[in-house]
Amino acid sequence: MPLMVLFGIWTVSGLILVSSVFNDAHRIVGELTTESVVSDPDLGLAADQNDWPSYGRSHYGQRYSPLDQITPANVAELELAWEYQTGDLKGPEDVNETTYEATPLKIGNSLFLYTA
């Protein structure tokens, strides 16, 4: 009798396992419209639309810029205008790889950045 109970438990467990392979519990089926739901969204921007005053540009971190001077049609024509050397150099005790991962902030006519 105990063997039959164990066999029944294994059978039910096996059926549950096999059925879970074919069922995606996290799949959501639907379509998004291409219409604009909000025509004038609150972007949380500063008063000057040319500024990038925080990480992600806005206080919401959306990483969106309404500026349209650079487009897919003219991006290939961009050239290096300037570069800045911070003076941070790899020292003998530093790790093998160093990466600059800071977001520069542009406020008014000033660009702010920080280094290690």
Task: List its traits.
116 residues; two-stranded antiparallel sheet; 1 helix; 17% helix
Describe the model.
With 116 residues, the protein is mainly α. The protein has a domain at 43-78 and 101-116. The protein has one helix and two strands. The chain has one helix at residues 2-21, and strands at residues 105-107, 110-112. Strands 1-2 form a two-stranded antiparallel sheet. It starts with a helix and ends with a strand. The model has no long low-confidence stretch (mean pLDDT 81).
Short description:
With 116 residues, the protein is mainly alpha-helical. 17% of the residues lie in helices and 5% in strands.
Secondary-structure blueprint:
Blueprint: H1 2-21, E1 105-107, E2 110-112
Antiparallel strand pairs: 1-2
Put simply, the count of helices is 1
Strand content: 5-15%
Mean pLDDT: 81
Structural class of the secondary structure composition?
mainly alpha
From the alpha carbons, calculate the radius of gyration and give it in angstroms: 28 Å
Strand neighbour order, sheet with most strands: 1-2
- Helical percentage: 10-25%
The succession of helices and strands, N to C, reads: HEE
Describe the global form: elongated
